[in-house]
Design goal:
Shape: elongated
Radius of gyration: 15 Å
Number of domains: 1
Number of strands: 2
Structural class: alpha+beta
Strand order of the largest sheet: 1-2
Helix content: 55-70%
């Protein structure tokens, strides 16, 4: 269990380090992402981006575990 947590932590750190380059790919600004701007603030929920990332990670893990 500890090994899995270390791998997940390293993966999160890697994504955080690569975030400036990943932003140029258009992730986080896909059609279907919810963005509401009001007078007192804004709300952003990357709905479609979350689904795309989930599907890609699921496929990667499925291929690894096969």
């Amino acid at each position: 269990m500890g090994r899995v947590l270390i791998i997940v932590g390293l993966a999160i750190a890697a994504v955080g380090a690569l975030w400036p380059w990943l932003g140029k790919l258009g992730l986080g600004r896909l059609p279907g992402d919810v963005y509401i701007r009001g007078a007192h603030g804004s709300f952003y929920f990357p709905l479609v981006t979350s689904i795309v990332v989930s599907v890609v990670l699921s496929l990667i893990l499925w291929f690894i575990n096969r």
